[in-house]
Amino acid sequence: MDLVWELLIILLKIVVVVLLFAFPIGSLMTLLGDRKQSSLIQNRIGPNRARLPGINHPLVGIPHFLADGLKMIFKEDIIPRQANRFWHTLAPAISLFPAIALWAVIPFSDHYCTGTATMVDYRDVCVDGAFYNLFSISNLEAGLLYVFAISAVSVYGAAIAGWASNSKFSLLGGLRSSAQMISYEVTMGLSLAGILIIYGTLNLNEMVVVQGQLLWDWLPMWGIVVQPLAFFLFLAAMMAETKRAPFDVPEGESEIVAGYFTEFSSMKFAVIQLSEYVATVFVGSLVSTVFLGGWQVPWLYGDGFYFGNTDEPSIPLPYWLVIVLRVGSFSIKTLFILWLQFMLRWTLPRFRYDQIMTLGWKILLPLSLANLVITAFVVLVLL
Amino acid sequence: MSTHNVTVVERPRRNLWVQSYLPEVAKGLAITSRQFFKNLLTGSDIQTVQYPEVKRDYPLRYRGLHRLTYRDDGQVRCVACMCCSTICPANCIHITAAEHEDTSIEKYPAEFVIDELRCIVCGLCVEACPCDAIRMDSGIHAHPFYERDKAFLNKDYLLDLGGPSTAVQGGVLGSRSAR
Amino acid sequence: MPTLTINGKEITVDPGTTVLRAAAMLGIDIPHFCYHPALSVPANCRMCLVEIEKARKLEPSCYAKVGEGMVVHTESPKVIAARRAVLEFILVNHPVDCPICDQAGECKLQDYYVAYDSQPSRVAVPKVGKAKAYPIGPRVVFDGERCILCTRCVRFCDEITGTSELTVAERGDHSEIRTFPGKELDNPYSMNVTDICPVGALTTRDFRFKCRVWLMSSTDSICTGCAKGCNVHLEHFQGEAQRYRPRFNPEVNEYWMCDAGRMSYLELHADRLPSLRVLEDSELSWPRAARKVAALLGEKATGEGVAFVASAQSSCEGLMAGREFVRTMLDDAPVFWTGRPDGDGDAFLIRADKNPNRAGLAGIFGVEVLAQDAHRLLQELERGAIRVLYMMDSTLPFTSDEMKRFRAAVEKLELFVLQAPRRGGLDDLADVLLPSTTHAEQDGSFVNEDGLLQSFWAAYRPRTQALADWEVFVRLARGADRELSFSDFESLHGALHAEQGAAQDAGE
Predict the structure, then answer these.
(1) Spatial separation of the C-alpha atoms in residues A329 and A321, rounded to whole Å
(2) Chain A hits for B28, Cβ within 8 Å
(3) Which domain holds residue A27?
């Protein structure tokens, strides 16, 4: 019985995380981020014509997004002559798979305490009960390694899509994206190594718990506080990983039409786009988990706000409210990073290909190495 | 070789601060964020005109759909000289000339068709017309058509858009002074 | 041999040469209206006035003869001023209706006005009205207001045709070109006046309002109206012939051509064969059709009873290829010839033989082939001696009665292949239809009645599947996996010239 119950809960978590969080935000970003946000930056109105039946209001253009989806479904699905039909059909799925699978390890809040939650030494403790993983799909011990592994797989989607299309533009896009993603993976891993040394864990939830510690009893020990350089390195590397502007040479419209998905249409096109946006949202959630304290709300612990290392909460709060605040905090941080990514996209021009390679290998990599060495040294001296 | 009118422009010196690109990114973000929040909250900088509901005043020399002007007696002013169809870079004007029974008019267009799908609205036909017969000042947008046939504007349609020309056929006697 | 200086350049010319001709030899163009090299010199337009040093006033260069040591200025301020004055004078009563006028674009008055005058009219009194769009002859329209009274047309009718229909009537600014009472401009060369008219006063009825001259492209061609082979400019627009204009050739037609020949361009687009057809199959490409036809010929066109009909309308190249085709594909079948029937001729340009290439046909197939004409063919057909007929043309010199007999005889044939540009009322009887091009759509040459080999060039591409005669033969041979001794126009043309040269040497 317990096993069935467990499975049902996991299924429910998958449904909630993927279908109610990652997909909606990811696909809404196509509209709100790419179209509406850009229009405001550029002194335009943006999509405002489509209407839902019976509602005479543009609703910030969301009907457009629905209409686009509807249109995508009814478009003709074209497979170019001479293309490899098998891989051409499979490529969108290969792109989408890692984008979804990554979400397995993201903690939306702390483990649920079946007893009474309280705080000891800036950590939640559960009195008369145990912690029960309810807010991440899988509480994987090697969570961060899992993230690296799966995001390394995502390069296959683009490369295969580019190769299978039998188009020069697609092939160029596929090559560019593989080169770029492999280059930036190095920096991505190394910039997080410092944080691993400090937190001493690969488990993402544990990382967030550690970020609840306070330095000098007032400053939350978020990743951005202890590893500011790594934060920027990681953000840059992750943006390159997701092929977002200004790192969007794999789909540089002015040069190679749409890069590796030039020859995709209908829902295949939609799926590739969607996986990109879901991956973008994931970057937001990962950055907020590792560097911005994840679900942590400063000074908020199991039973309320603590200002200073006291026994009783300064402002006591019911446990359900704490959970709501934590999930909300995580979501807001994720959305903020997303917003920032789109802001950067509409601010910066596309880098040249050689600039991207120079940035990745000659600047970000040495910096992340230096960051790692210094962190290791400091940790060795202090502890 | 004289060099006195050569201005030496110094290469931009890029120190580490500039080279790191971060300050420029920050400056850019400041600008885009400012516009984003300004337009999100007040919408004060938005330039968009909601076209079909709100229309901007067209400039006086706005080029819209063609029209054919007519003579005082309502006949088409065009004499089918083909100047417009010759100069048309899009090859969109098709004229069939015919003999007019009035020998003082002599030649007139039996057919005058403008393919608005091909027209690039350059206005060269108006410039080329020696008779002030074709004009583009109808003020009507070259709009899309639901049926391709409808985009071939014929003589009757163009004449309906037209009006009498202000020019005098053959000029006014004595009004043109010698240089 | 007087030597004179024109605009600082020296030239030595024959005595009696006019200054205008001497200047032309130096490449100096002197504006003129009334002067025409083939006509007498009236010097009435005054446009060609030039300054000759030591002369008291400006001299008309078309009339003034050269003298030893003469110093001429054709672009001096005085001359330019005179041209301006002449133009202004000519334009006093000119309606300036260039948009309507068909001459616009090739009008000398228009060109000179832009080059020299370019000023608005200073005349404030109403212009003198004259005849507009007056049908001065059955093929020519006259506009009195545009006329500048250069009298070229009058002199043409007096001196070239000798028919003298035209004269200048009335006086002063009421002067007008008119026909003599009871006459109209109706001679076989009447349309030449529209070519020599420097303005739009005389235009052809046929070309009237049809196409603006600046839109047309011009290709050098040969008139196919008769055996004279007048040189023409074939002027065409968007793949359609618009008119013929005579092309100067002192050995053949000088500046002129006859009205019938001029109108013969109308045949270029009339009655054309639309597409290939082999038996019932009419949606064919050339290679497929060639294989099918070659198979048909291989099956039926062997042994006795095969006949080939060459055409006097076809080019020498087509006939050369046809000769070789008969040798390789038709077992040296007997050759007949066809063409248009003879008509009236005259002593000037019109020949009784209405086929452009009968001399070429005789040169290529031998003179004896001329005896094997279409009437002989009809006899043979009615005798039942022919079962397979390959015709290179659908033009037949038959009366309607003979045509009926011919059709009846053709219906009994085993195989009737018709390779022709036009239907000619035979397309329904043919088993195989092979559309070929007119001379306007192919390069080639004709031999005219005087034995002169003249080339013409393709003006535009055919709108149908038509191919040049020689190419049809090459393709059919290829369809039977055989090669003729040439496969392109250059080698064929070279062979033709070699043969013609040899024939001429033998003749001499």
Answers:
(1) 12
(2) 347-348
(3) 2-382
Q: Which of A214, A202, A246 is nearest to A360 (CA)?
A: A246
Per-residue pLDDT band for A1 (boundaries 50, 70, 90) equals low
CB contact under 8 A, B130 and C99: yes
CB within 8 Å: C124 and B173: yes
B107 and C209: CB-CB below 8 Å? yes
Contacts with C99 from chain B: Cβ below 8 Å: 79, 81, 83, 130-131
A355 close to B (CB below 8 A): no
**Encoded amino acid at B158, one letter:** L
Using the Cβ of C118 and the Cβ atoms of chain B, whether some distance falls under 8 Å is answered with no
Chain B residue with the nearest C-alpha to that of A49: B50
Which chains lie within 8 Å of chain C at 3 or more CB pairs, if any?
Answer: B
Q: Out of A37, A45, A346, whose CB is closest to B46?
A: A45
Contacts of C145 (CB under 8 A, 6+ apart): C93, C94, C95, C97, C127, C128, C129, C130, C131, C132
> Which of B99, B107, B178 is nearest residue C120 as measured by Cβ atoms?
B178
CA angle C446, C448, C453 (to 5 degrees): 55
- Give per-residue pLDDT as tens, C151-176: 999 999 999 999 999 999 999 889 99
Q: Does residue C162 sit at the B interface (CB-CB below 8 Å)?
A: no
| Residue C339 to chain B, least CA–CA distance (Å) | 36
pLDDT digits (tens, 9 = 90+) for A21-74: 778 877 777 667 778 888 888 988 888 888 888 888 877 788 888 888 888 889
* d(C-alpha A230, C-alpha A287), whole Å: 11
Q: State what percent of residues in chain C have pLDDT above 70.
A: 99
Contacts of A41 in chain B (CB under 8 A): 32, 35-36, 39
Neighbours of chain B (3+ CB pairs under 8 A): A, C
| Cβ neighbours of residue A122 closer than 8 Å, sequence gap 6 or more | A212, A213, A214, A301, A306, A309
For chain C, give me the number of helices (H) and strands (E)? 13, 21
Q: What is the pLDDT of residues B95-116, one digit of tens each?
A: 999 998 888 888 999 999 999 8
Would you give the distance in Å from CA A85 to the centre of its chain?
31
Instruction: Compute the nearest-CA separation of B7 from chain A (Å).
Output: 30
CA of C336: how far to CAs of A12, A101, A270, in Å? 96, 87, 73
Asked if A183 contacts A360 with a C-beta cutoff of 8 angstroms, the reply is: yes
Tens of pLDDT, residue by residue over C94-123, are 988 888 899 999 999 999 999 998 888 888
Helix (H) or strand (E) holding A198: helix A168-199
Whether the per-residue pLDDT at C508 is higher than 60: the answer is no
Q: What is the ipTM of this complex?
A: 0.78
Crossing angle of helices C316-329 and C469-479, rounded to 10°: 20
Cα A238 off chain centre by: 9
Report whether CATH 3.30.420.380 matches the domain B67-161: no
Domain extent listing, chain B: 14-48, 67-161
CB contact under 8 A, B46 and A348: no
Q: Count up the domains in chain A and report the number.
A: 1
- pLDDT of A270 > 80? The answer is yes
Sorted by where each starts, the structural domains of chain C and their CATH numbers stand as: 3-90 (3.10.20.740), 125-269 (3.30.70.20), 277-507 (3.40.50.740)
Chain C nearest-CA distance from B174, in A, is: 5
Nearest Cβ partner for B103 among C99, C126, C132: C132
C104 touches chain B (CB under 8 A): yes
